[in-house]
Design goal:
Number of strands: 12
Largest sheet: 5 strands, parallel
Order of helices and strands: HHEEEHEHEHEHEHHHEHEEHEEH
Strand order of the largest sheet: 4-3-5-6-7
Shape: globular
Helix content: 40-55%
Radius of gyration: 20 Å
Bound molecules: 6-O-phosphono-alpha-D-glucopyranose
Strand content: 15-25%
Length: 369
């Protein structure tokens, strides 16, 4: 087993470090002449034309990738998109039919809840597409089409490289759909894809030791909160899930705008709060709203750890710690912002002496309902 870890202390550490390559593999062969063309979807344009609704269904970490996908598909393919946890979707009477595309996301391709949702969608006449990391798994076999993430085998129970590859696959899919539906007006996002692996590598290189040190200082923490807005919101949820899964610390992710509607009551002096700050270049308005959220929690004594774009000076006066990510397009920030949160959860679990690869009570793939 030690050899399989390739010198890393855990599979999770190895898989976190493999993310630049995993994401590069997801993109490989899918960009041609400045356009995203996914070869597996060749001849399947009818999956994307004449639909008026997309539902993305998944469980766990994959459902947070799905939330990022909602933003990308709505923006680029201009079709209303909702995310449904697979076990919730299946057990009501959803309004779906042949004008609905149901996208499922699953690393293993074997999660029973997700599989049942896909089968149910098909029975109802919906078009189905799966995003999967495991060649030939059951969920892709039950779907009309599949886009593989090609992240390589993921062994650690807590998902890391599969998650960044899932988001990348959703960005590719959103751009592919936008081209097919002729709704994509701006090719700048396609150009950004090529830089993504190097930007992930730069976060790993520049922030690993800083974040690990931070986690070491916080080994006795009993609760950590995560705030994000727009595509940073799913990353706040994922940051909290990683911490729960492997370090057994109470953690919650919130939409930053929701703070004043409840969660701010949790803030007391010393409460650690991670805030994912969107670039001010994308939207000065969204950025300023997140900065004012930071001021609100800081005023109540929170210990604020900010994840912000390099050069974002507006956050510095209010942050106890700043973790930097490189400049990237708005849809690409999640893939970068999640990396320090993965490192944080892993380092904190390690500081507590826990086995990061085999957390208690969890299975890598849940094949029962
Ligand atoms: C389990 C794992 C999670 C994973 C979820 C969905 O709960 O512990 O890490 O996110 O299943 O798995 P899937 O293989 O469908 O992506």
């Amino acid at each position: 087993a030690a050899a399989e870890k390739g010198g890393w202390s855990s599979f999770m550490a190895k898989e976190v470090a493999e993310q630049p390559q995993a994401v590069a593999n997801t993109i490989l062969g899918r960009v041609h002449d400045g356009q995203v063309v996914i070869p597996e979807l060749d001849g399947l344009d009818e999956l994307f034309i004449g639909i008026n609704r997309v539902i993305i269904t998944a469980c766990g970490t994959a459902s947070y990738a799905a939330l990022v996908g909602k933003y990308a598909i709505e923006q680029w393919a201009r079709v209303a998109t909702d995310v449904e946890l697979a076990h919730e979707f299946r057990y009501r009477d959803p309004v779906i039919g042949d004008d609905t595309l149901v996208i499922s996301i699953s690393q293993s391709g074997e999660t029973m809840d997700t599989l049942m949702a896909v089968k149910y969608a098909r029975e109802r006449g919906a078009r189905t597409l799966s995003i999967c990391n495991t060649q030939g798994a059951t969920i892709p076999r039950e779907s009309d089409a599949v886009v593989y993430t090609h992240a390589g085998p993921e062994v650690a129970v807590a998902s890391t490289k599969a998650f960044s590859a899932q988001i990348t696959a959703l960005l590719l899919l959103g751009l592919h759909m936008g081209r097919v539906r002729q709704t994509l007006t701006d090719d700048s996002a396609v150009a950004e894809l090529a830089d993504l692996p190097d930007k992930i590598a730069s976060v790993l290189e520049k922030e690993n030791d800083h974040v690990a040190q931070l986690a070491g200082w916080m080994a006795d923490t009993r609760s950590v909160l995560f705030l994000g807005r727009h595509v940073g919101y799913p990353i706040a949820l994922e940051g909290a899930l990683k911490l729960k899964e492997i370090s057994y610390i109470h953690a919650e992710g919130f939409a930053a705008g929701e703070l004043k509607h409840g969660p701010i009551a949790l803030i007391e002096p010393g409460q650690p709060v991670f805030v994912i700050v969107p670039s001010p270049r994308h939207s000065a308005l969204i950025h300023s709203k997140v900065v004012s959220n930071i001021q609100e929690i800081r005023a109540r004594g929170a210990r604020v750890i900010v994840i912000a774009e390099e050069g974002d000076a507006a956050v510095l006066p209010f942050a106890d710690e700043v973790i930097h990510i490189p400049l990237a397009g708005p849809m690409f920030e999640p893939v970068l912002a999640v990396v320090p949160l993965q490192i944080f959860a892993m380092a904190l679990a390690t500081a507590k002496g826990l086995d990061v690869d085999q957390p208690r009570n969890l299975a890598k793939s849940v094949t029962v309902e």
